[in-house]
Amino acid sequence: IQERIPDSVVTIIAEKFSPNTTSDVAAGLIEPYLCDDDVDRVISWIKSTIQRIQEYMDEGNPGAEEQSGYWLQSVKSVPKWLEVMKNVKILTGNELKMVAKRPEHKFGIFYTTWYLEPTPYIKWESDKFLKNGGKIKNSKIQKIEDVEKEFGLFDVILNCTGIGARHLIGDNEVFPTRGQILKVKCPSVKHFFIDDQFYALLNDTTITLGGTADRHQWDRTINPKISEKIFQENCKNIPSLRSAQVISSHVDLRPSRVTVRLEAEPDSKVIHNYGHGGSGITLHWGCALECVELVKKVLAGKPGISKI
Ligand SMILES: Cc1cc2nc3c(=O)[nH]c(=O)nc-3n(C[C@H](O)[C@H](O)[C@H](O)COP(=O)(O)OP(=O)(O)OC[C@H]3O[C@@H](n4cnc5c(N)ncnc54)[C@H](O)[C@@H]3O)c2cc1C
Ligand SMILES: N[C@H](Cc1ccccc1)C(=O)O
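Above: query sequence and D-phenylalanine SMILES. Below: predicted holo structure tokens.
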């Protein structure tokens, strides 16, 4: 918003900041997951995010790269969003035989996508934001009406609170899908490997192993038994992981919702952008650009500096 609406002073108000947000836990795979939105809307958001990743990569920043690998399925699915990926190839019978590790690996797709490690990327965006006059305030907001009581009047307020929206504005449609992951070091793993239940995804120096998806589970405590199962099951898919060095375990709550809520509240200065499920990194820049257009509508050509 700060980049696209020059006459704006933007303040970010948040209870938690990177590296302590849900976004920091994300594996950073660019691929929609637990996101039942209209697929053309999702594809358009992903395309914008990929452009932003390219910009970020072109500057030589860490934590973003292409990654290729295998998606093995028990039931054949070739979703439309694969059109934004590169080198998409349906595996032949023989190729499947070479990579399948379980009887349920009945159908496979090879493709190239990207990863965008959230924490270094958020730092890149935040540094630019602050350099260009952005403000940051640390506060837990009880009700959205309290924002202006605590911080003065704004021309537009964006609600990007993820799972927090459930309590902040009482949207019970947004619910947690608990996810637990491991970060391991295993330089010999060069491809991602995703199947119906587990995944191994590339990052700059680690492999992210997942994963779980427990709906309506709020517990953010790491369960060592789940970590062990994630490790053992991924070793079945990629045997060379047996030599991996386990670095850390993480848990967070995917802000799940039937659809992403990205809309301006009628006759209000509030714009909502939450409920991205397991796809927030994947969709983020496309959603941000759509928010810019909504902000412009709310401002409706208001002269002078706008407070957002
Ligand atoms: C294990 C796991 C793996 C994942 N892997 C991927 C992946 O590979 N690719 C992908 O695209 N997505 C992935 N995701 C999903 C992704 O992490 C989320 O969709 C994304 O983080 C949501 O971003 P957000 O900015 O909406 O929420 P958050 O990152 O949670 O940010 C919300 C912000 O709002 C603030 N906030 C909330 N309530 C309040 C309040 N009342 N007052 C003040 N501040 C408040 C919070 O402090 C925080 O700063 C994964 C998620 C999990 C759990
Ligand atoms: N989107 C990530 C990783 C993932 C990738 C592929 C399939 C399922 C999940 C998550 O929410 O855990």
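The longest strand covers residues 245-256.
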